[in-house]
Batch of 2 targets.
Target 1
Amino acid sequence: MDRDPHAWARLGRKLKQARLAQGLKQSDIADEAGVSLASVQSAEAGTVPKSRMPITLSPIAAALGWRPGSVDVVLQGGEPYLDTSEPAWRDVPVQQQIDEERLAGIMTTAMVRATEHATAAEIRAATRIALDELRRQGYLPETDGVQPQQDSANS
C-alpha cells in the first residue's frame, strides 16, 4: 500500500472535487456509500491510513461514480475511471486494422513506461508473448511462420 502523504492528499482532493462537482454534501456521500460521515471526512482530508487500505474508500469512490480500481489509480497519480452509461472508449474512433509491427511498438512503449528495471530483451520477449496471445484469440492474423524482421538498431 502506498504510504506517500502527497498521494493520499491528491486522493482527498480528487474525492472532494468529485463530490463538489456533483453538488453533494459529505453526508450525502456517507449515506450513499453506507459509511460514516467521519470516513468521508477522513478520505477527503487525505489522511494516510495507519496499516491497510480503509475498507470505506471503495464505497465512497463508487458513490461518487468512480469505477473499481480508481482509488489505486489516483494514488499512483492518475485520474479516476468514471462510471458512465457509455464507456469513454466507445467515443474514440477505432482503426479497423493495425499491423503487427505498429502494435508491437505501442505495446513495447507502454511496457517501457510501466517498468523500471526490465531489460530491452525482456520487454521484447513480453511483447512477443502478448502478440502471440492476441493472435491465438483471433485479434491478429496467424503468421505464415515468418516473423517480422527485427530492426537490429533497436535490439
Target 2
Amino acid sequence: MKNTFKISTSMASMAIGCLVLFCAAFTIPTEYCIKWVDLDTHNFGEIESGKLTTCSFTFRNCSGDSVTIANVRPACGCTTPDWRTASIPPDSTAEIGIEFSSRKSGYFYKMIKVYFKEFPQAERIYVEGTVK
C-alpha cells in the first residue's frame, strides 16, 4: 500500500501566506541613497588646545522618498552634533553641524554615525586634525 500525502486547501493557503510574509519582511521599501556633497571627512588642520571648532557636512537625499535623520552619534564626548529633525524631500540637501572641543594635544580622528529612520545602517562621517 502506498502512503499518500494530501494537503488541504487551507494548509496550502496558509503556506503561501507565510511565504509571502517571509519575502515581504526582507524587502526594503525605498532605495537607499544618501550622498555627501563634499567629502565624508573634514580636516580641521592644526587647532589650538581648548578651542571650540565647528564644521558642517552637507548631504543630498537621492532616494525616491523623503528621509529623516533619527540620530547623530559621535564616538566621544569631544564632538557635539547639530541637525534638523524635519524630513528631507527627495533630491534635497541638508546639513549636519559638528562642534569639536579640543582638549588633548596631538592628532585626532573621530567618527560620527548618522542614523536615518528609513534605513537600517548608519552613515559614517569623520573629523580629523591636530591639536597643538
